[in-house]
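User: Sequence recovery, please. Input:
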C-alpha cells in the first residue's frame, strides 16, 4: 500500500444529514498518484456478506464529503453498495498544499485513486466499481470514466462542465476578448499572490444576497448558506476557492474523450436547473456517432432545479441509481 500522510480527521458525526442505522461508517484515507492523501467516509451496508459492488462519490465543486456526496454515499450503502465519499485534493480534510486549488488533472486523479483504494479493499469486488460525480464533479466523473477502464458505471448528477464555464462563462456569455481579459486578470492575480506570499480567496456563495441576484445564485444560497447545507469546511459555504484556483480549467477541455467511454453512463439533471445545458450538451457529444451509445442515458427530472439534486431525497431518483448500478455492476 502507498504511504499516506497523517491527517487530522474529525471523528464525531458532523454531516448535514442524519446518520443511518442501516449502515456502518468509518473514516479512511488513501493517496493519489501525486502523493496527496485524501480523506474519506466509508459506508457499508450493515450485515452484508461477501464481496460487494462499490461506488466512489464526490462533489459538488467546492463542497465537502459531509454535504451532498456523503448523503449519496450513505443512501447507496443502504441499498447494498460499499461506498466512499471523499474530499478532493486541497480541500476539506484531505491533504495537498496550497489549499483551495482545483485541477482538471489532479481532480480526475482523485477519482482514480478512489478506485485504487476500493479495488484493494477486502470487502469489494474490484470488477464491480462505479462512480458518482455531483455538480462540477459530474463533468470530472465523465473525464475519469473516459480514462479509467476499471470504472464500470458512471453517474453524473446535475453536472457542470468546469472547463466550459471557466473558458466561456455562464451560458457561454464570454467571447474571445472577454476570455483574454479574464486571463490578464488571473495572471495579474498570480503576481499579487506571489508578492504577498499567500493566495487570495475569491469568496464563496455571496451573502447576504443582493436584491437583484439571479435565481441560480439564490438557489446556491439556499443550500450553502443556510442550516440546510452549511458546513464549516465547505469552500462554497465560506471563503471559496483561491482566485487563481480554477485557472487551468480554461485551457484544458475535460470532456474531449467522452465519446470513447465504453462502459455505462447515466447523466441526470433537473429540467429547470440553470445548468441543464451542460448535461444536454455533454450527453449529445458523448453519443454522437459513437459505437458505444447504447448504454448511455440522459434523465431529465421534471420541474427540478440545480440544488434539488443535492439533497432532496424526494427528487433525487435513488431507485433509478440503484437499478443502474445493479444492472451495470453485475
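Assistant: Recovered sequence (330 residues):
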Amino acid at each position: 500500500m502507498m504511504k499516506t500522510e497523517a491527517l487530522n480527521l474529525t471523528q464525531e458525526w458532523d454531516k448535514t444529514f442524519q446518520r443511518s442505522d442501516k449502515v456502518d461508517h468509518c473514516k479512511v484515507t488513501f493517496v493519489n498518484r501525486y502523493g496527496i492523501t485524501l480523506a474519506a467516509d466509508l459506508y457499508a451496508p450493515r450485515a452484508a456478506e461477501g464481496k460487494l459492488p462499490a461506488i466512489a462519490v464526490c462533489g459538488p465543486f467546492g463542497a465537502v464529503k459531509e454535504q451532498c456526496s456523503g448523503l449519496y454515499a450513505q443512501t447507496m450503502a443502504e441499498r447494498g453498495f460499499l461506498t466512499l465519499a471523499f474530499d478532493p485534493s486541497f480541500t476539506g480534510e484531505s491533504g495537498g498544499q496550497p489549499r483551495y486549488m482545483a485541477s482538471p488533472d489532479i481532480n480526475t486523479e482523485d477519482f482514480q485513486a478512489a478506485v485504487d483504494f476500493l479495488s484493494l479493499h477486502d470487502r469489494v469486488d474490484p470488477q464491480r466499481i462505479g462512480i458518482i460525480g455531483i455538480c462540477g464533479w459530474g463533468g470530472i466523473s465523465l473525464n475519469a470514466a473516459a480514462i479509467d477502464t476499471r470504472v464500470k458505471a458512471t453517474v453524473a448528477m446535475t453536472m457542470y462542465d468546469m472547463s466550459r464555464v471557466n473558458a466561456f462563462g455562464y451560458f457561454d456569455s464570454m467571447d474571445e476578448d472577454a476570455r483574454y481579459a479574464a486571463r490578464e486578470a488571473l495572471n495579474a492575480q498570480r503576481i499579487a499572490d506571489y508578492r504577498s506570499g499567500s493566495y487570495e480567496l475569491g469568496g464563496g456563495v455571496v451573502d447576504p444576497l443582493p436584491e437583484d441576484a439571479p435565481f441560480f445564485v439564490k438557489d446556491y444560497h439556499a443550500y450553502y448558506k443556510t442550516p440546510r447545507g452549511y458546513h464549516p469546511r465547505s469552500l462554497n459555504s465560506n471563503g471559496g476557492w483561491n482566485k487563481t484556483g480554477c485557472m487551468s480549467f480554461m485551457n484544458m477541455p475535460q470532456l474531449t474523450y467522452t465519446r470513447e467511454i465504453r462502459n455505462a453512463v447515466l447523466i441526470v439533471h433537473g429540467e429547470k436547473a440553470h445548468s441543464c445545458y451542460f448535461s444536454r450538451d455533454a450527453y449529445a457529444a458523448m453519443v454522437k456517432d459513437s459505437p458505444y451509445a447504447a448504454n448511455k442515458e440522459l434523465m431529465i427530472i421534471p420541474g427540478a432545479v440545480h440544488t434539488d439534486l443535492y439533497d432532496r431525497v424526494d427528487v433525487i431518483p435513488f431507485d433509478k441509481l440503484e437499478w443502474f448500478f445493479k444492472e451495470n455492476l453485475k
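The beta strands are 23-31, 37-45, 52-58, 82-86, 124-134, 151-157, 264-270, 296-301.
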